[in-house]
Structure formats: structure tokens, C-alpha cells
# Entry
Amino acid sequence: MILVGQYDSPYTRRVAVSLGLLGFPFEHDARSVFADFDSMRTTNPLGRVPSLVLPDGTTLIDSAAILDWLDQQVGVERALLPPGGPARQQALQRMALATGTIDKVMAAAYERLIRPGAYRWPDWIKRCRTQAEGGLAALAALRWPGDASLGQAWITTACMVGYVRLADPDLLPPGRYPSLDAVSERCEALPAFQAAYPAEYFVPTAEPL
Ligand SMILES: N[C@@H](CCC(=O)N[C@@H](CS)C(=O)NCC(=O)O)C(=O)O
# Structure
């Protein structure tokens, strides 16, 4: 299998971590959605990451669909998302908060880092960062017992924390939300997380903030 995407993408990273935790060997294709845009569109028509190229040549796109496929491969006992009931609902709600936070931080980062300075819209950046703060506070208010089984809600939340700290560190200084610090520390200590460590946040323009 080939995982396409760089690890500064939290969506790519959560797939890489899940592949590692579930014991799937894979190659890593670290093409960039920005620098390799035309090439990337031949893998995913949307020109986005992650994609997972299966041994039979099928290409899966979108991290949620890829994670669902991985869970289907390993079966209910080893799946990273509970099969049903309140546990699944709770995990999906946590993941919705985490991915929603990612999307808002990413939208603000693209506005700050990609859009030419003359066209930036500060009120939009402020709105996105306010929404991200809402997601962070809601996740931090939940219980994250350190002995809970480490499923997809934990993985996605830890990838979100890592991404926020790369892309907009002022939103999540260590100590602001001790519960999220603990989720991150527990997860980042695992080999599957360390094997998918983002080298740096890719900034496609050289413009200062
Ligand atoms: N819902 C998608 C979101 C993927 C996504 O936002 N990928 C970002 C990188 S983290 C991307 O490809 N951005 C470039 C673009 O959208 O043009 C997923 O879960 O895979």
C-alpha cells in the first residue's frame, strides 16, 4: 500500500498512525498538494491528501473513507472505531470536534499563508480562529481517562493537537488545556505517532505573516 501525503496534514497523519497501529506495512509518497499539484491531481481528482493506493491499484481518497476501509479489513475486534451504540456515537462526536477544529485552523492558515497579503480578510481569520477555539474548549472539557483504549477519537484528537501546534501555536499553548496536553503526550509517545512525525509545517509562500 502507498500512503500519499505529507505528515504536516493531520488527515494524512491520522491514516499513517492508524496503519501503523493496526500493523499494515505501507510505503510513503510525500508529494505536496501545493508543490506537486498537477501530479497530485492524477492520484486524487480533488488534488488533496490523503490518498491510499491499495495493492490492486485501487485508490481510496478521504481519510474517513480510508479509516473505514482499514477498520473493515481488521474486523470488529481490532477496529479503531467502536462498531455501534453509545461508544461509537461518542467517538464520532469527538472526531467531529477534532476534524472541525482542524478545518477551521486550516482555513485560517490558508488565508494567512497562501492568500496574498493584499487580499487577506482579517475578520474571516478571526471567525475561523474563534470557531477553532470553540472546538478546542469543547474537547478539553470532556473526560480523557489515561487508561481508555486508544481508538480513533484519541488518534484524531492527538493529530489535531499536533497540527494546531504547528499551524497556529498561539491557539494551544501547553498548559491551556491540560486534558489535551495529556492526550497528546500519551499518543505522541507511541512508535506509530513518531514514525509519522511532520518535519515542519509546509508554507507555500515566502510572504511573512
Ligand atoms: N475530508 C478530507 C480533508 C482532507 C484535507 O483537508 N486535506 C488537506 C491537507 S490536510 C489538503 O489536501 N489541502 C489542499 C487543498 O484542499 O487544496 C479528509 O479527511 O481526507
